[in-house]
Write a structure and sequence with these properties.
It contains twelve helices and eight strands. With 294 residues, the chain is α/β, with parallel strands linked by helices.
Amino acid sequence: MKNPFLGTGIAIVTPFKTNGAIDHEALANIVEFNINNGTDYIVISGTTGESVTITKQEKQDIIATISKANKGKLPLVLGVGGNNTAEVIKEIETTSFTEFAGILSVSPYYSKPTQEGIYEHFKAISNVCPVPIILYNVPGRTASNMSPETTLRLANDFANIVAVKEAGNNVAQYLQLLKDKPDHFGVISGDDDLALSIALAGGDGVISVIGQALPKAFSKMIALGRAGEAKEAYKLHFSLMEVTSLIFSENNPAGIKAVLQALDLCNDTVRLPLVVATDELKQKIKNYLSNFNK
């Protein structure tokens, strides 16, 4: 099974009203904005979607809203992961995947399993998952790194494990994966700042945070990178560097929500323990956008 997730995917936010309820109208608008501006696929209920503070019912409501707005136009990927393997398996077994092209499953966090534990966790998921699986390695959030050896072992052992979203901001690790991966397996950048470099090195693209706010420029950059057009791609990269840095300077998704608010796509509300971006950061974002040729 060859990795079907190519180009620019977005880790979509969950917009909230000021009272903390999900803003389904804003969510639908963000989906339509991305469909119309070059995004290749949408990832639902990841870190950027504040998945850890979303209830099971809210997750179903989010899926319904995005599916309705999407109208089958872009592939949808569902975030299904955690550090309780049995619960992850239960969620997979009780989820309808009619609308979904695959899942994104994070390496177990907090528990700090060994590499063998990580392997066995994903083996168990692979055995029950009816759709392709993108592994998600994000050591800064999980407190453990899924080594290239473990990722490649999973890629070689299970046909439905088709890619990894690598988000360790570790160029050497990316390059080891690209050098040694089987042909069917994709390496997807989870680091917006490295996405172009990884695409030029042979990566399959990105699952991006900033991409949902500036999809036209970001998706064009990745397409140029995948085509080997480095000079033109880096012009776009340089134009996006400042905002890419700004949105991660406090917390994610407070930064990206501040950008989306400045673009009138949703407000900046986040759920505790996260807090909204500072006024200083919001002003820097507004200054950047006023000079950005979208």
